[in-house]
Write a structure and sequence with these properties.
single chain, SH3 type barrels, six-stranded antiparallel sheet, 4 helices, 28% strand
Length: 112
Protein backbone atom coordinates (compact mmCIF):
# COMPACT_ATOMS: atom_id res chain seq x y z
CA UNK A 1 0.00 0.00 0.00
CA UNK A 2 1.45 3.35 -0.98
CA UNK A 3 1.96 6.10 1.53
CA UNK A 4 -0.56 8.31 -0.28
CA UNK A 5 -3.24 5.59 -0.15
CA UNK A 6 -2.51 4.95 3.54
CA UNK A 7 -2.89 8.65 4.31
CA UNK A 8 -6.18 8.70 2.37
CA UNK A 9 -7.49 5.73 4.38
CA UNK A 10 -6.62 7.47 7.66
CA UNK A 11 -8.35 10.68 6.53
CA UNK A 12 -11.36 8.62 5.39
CA UNK A 13 -11.64 6.90 8.78
CA UNK A 14 -11.37 10.15 10.75
CA UNK A 15 -13.86 12.02 8.57
CA UNK A 16 -16.32 9.14 8.66
CA UNK A 17 -16.33 9.24 12.48
CA UNK A 18 -16.87 12.98 12.80
CA UNK A 19 -18.95 13.98 9.79
CA UNK A 20 -22.43 12.55 9.92
CA UNK A 21 -23.97 14.30 6.93
CA UNK A 22 -23.26 11.98 3.97
CA UNK A 23 -23.72 14.73 1.36
CA UNK A 24 -21.06 16.96 2.93
CA UNK A 25 -18.87 13.92 3.57
CA UNK A 26 -18.82 13.03 -0.12
CA UNK A 27 -17.98 16.61 -1.12
CA UNK A 28 -14.96 16.54 1.19
CA UNK A 29 -13.80 13.00 0.43
CA UNK A 30 -14.96 10.99 -2.54
CA UNK A 31 -15.26 7.31 -1.63
CA UNK A 32 -14.10 6.07 -5.05
CA UNK A 33 -10.70 7.76 -4.80
CA UNK A 34 -8.75 10.64 -3.45
CA UNK A 35 -10.57 13.77 -4.54
CA UNK A 36 -10.53 16.64 -2.07
CA UNK A 37 -12.21 19.39 -4.05
CA UNK A 38 -15.06 21.64 -2.91
CA UNK A 39 -14.38 24.86 -4.85
CA UNK A 40 -16.93 25.89 -7.48
CA UNK A 41 -18.95 22.68 -7.40
CA UNK A 42 -22.59 22.84 -8.44
CA UNK A 43 -25.25 20.17 -9.00
CA UNK A 44 -25.66 18.93 -12.55
CA UNK A 45 -29.18 20.41 -12.58
CA UNK A 46 -27.70 23.94 -12.50
CA UNK A 47 -25.67 23.56 -15.71
CA UNK A 48 -26.95 25.67 -18.57
CA UNK A 49 -27.18 24.31 -22.13
CA UNK A 50 -23.81 24.22 -23.96
CA UNK A 51 -21.80 24.51 -20.71
CA UNK A 52 -19.08 21.93 -20.17
CA UNK A 53 -18.11 20.54 -16.78
CA UNK A 54 -16.23 17.77 -15.07
CA UNK A 55 -17.88 15.41 -12.58
CA UNK A 56 -16.23 15.76 -9.15
CA UNK A 57 -18.62 13.81 -6.86
CA UNK A 58 -21.67 11.58 -6.94
CA UNK A 59 -23.57 11.89 -3.67
CA UNK A 60 -25.82 8.87 -3.97
CA UNK A 61 -25.71 5.27 -2.82
CA UNK A 62 -23.38 2.58 -4.11
CA UNK A 63 -25.98 1.02 -6.46
CA UNK A 64 -26.69 4.36 -8.09
CA UNK A 65 -22.98 5.13 -8.45
CA UNK A 66 -22.42 1.75 -10.09
CA UNK A 67 -25.33 2.27 -12.47
CA UNK A 68 -24.08 5.73 -13.45
CA UNK A 69 -20.55 4.35 -13.94
CA UNK A 70 -21.96 1.68 -16.26
CA UNK A 71 -23.53 4.47 -18.33
CA UNK A 72 -20.19 6.29 -18.51
CA UNK A 73 -20.74 8.85 -15.74
CA UNK A 74 -17.65 8.57 -13.58
CA UNK A 75 -15.74 11.03 -11.48
CA UNK A 76 -13.46 12.94 -13.81
CA UNK A 77 -15.74 12.53 -16.84
CA UNK A 78 -16.10 15.59 -19.08
CA UNK A 79 -19.75 16.35 -19.89
CA UNK A 80 -21.68 18.96 -21.83
CA UNK A 81 -25.21 20.03 -20.92
CA UNK A 82 -27.70 19.92 -23.78
CA UNK A 83 -31.00 20.50 -21.96
CA UNK A 84 -31.82 21.18 -18.33
CA UNK A 85 -35.64 21.29 -18.40
CA UNK A 86 -37.38 18.07 -17.47
CA UNK A 87 -34.89 15.22 -17.74
CA UNK A 88 -31.34 16.55 -17.92
CA UNK A 89 -29.79 15.78 -21.31
CA UNK A 90 -26.00 15.61 -21.38
CA UNK A 91 -23.32 14.60 -23.86
CA UNK A 92 -20.32 12.47 -22.97
CA UNK A 93 -18.26 12.52 -26.15
CA UNK A 94 -20.51 11.25 -28.94
CA UNK A 95 -22.99 9.64 -26.51
CA UNK A 96 -26.15 11.39 -25.26
CA UNK A 97 -27.79 10.56 -21.91
CA UNK A 98 -31.01 11.58 -20.20
CA UNK A 99 -30.95 11.72 -16.40
CA UNK A 100 -33.85 12.48 -14.08
CA UNK A 101 -33.79 15.64 -11.96
CA UNK A 102 -33.58 13.67 -8.70
CA UNK A 103 -30.39 11.80 -9.56
CA UNK A 104 -28.89 14.77 -11.45
CA UNK A 105 -29.23 16.82 -8.27
CA UNK A 106 -26.77 14.45 -6.54
CA UNK A 107 -24.12 14.69 -9.27
CA UNK A 108 -21.69 17.50 -8.42
CA UNK A 109 -19.76 19.11 -11.26
CA UNK A 110 -17.11 21.78 -11.69
CA UNK A 111 -17.28 24.10 -14.70
CA UNK A 112 -14.42 23.84 -17.18
Amino acid sequence: MSLCRLAAEIIYTLLKKYIRNFFIFNLIYNIKGIKIKINNTIPLTQLKPNQTAQIVAINKGCKCQTRLADMGLRIGSQIEAIQNAGPILIAIGPMRLGIGQGIANHIMVELT
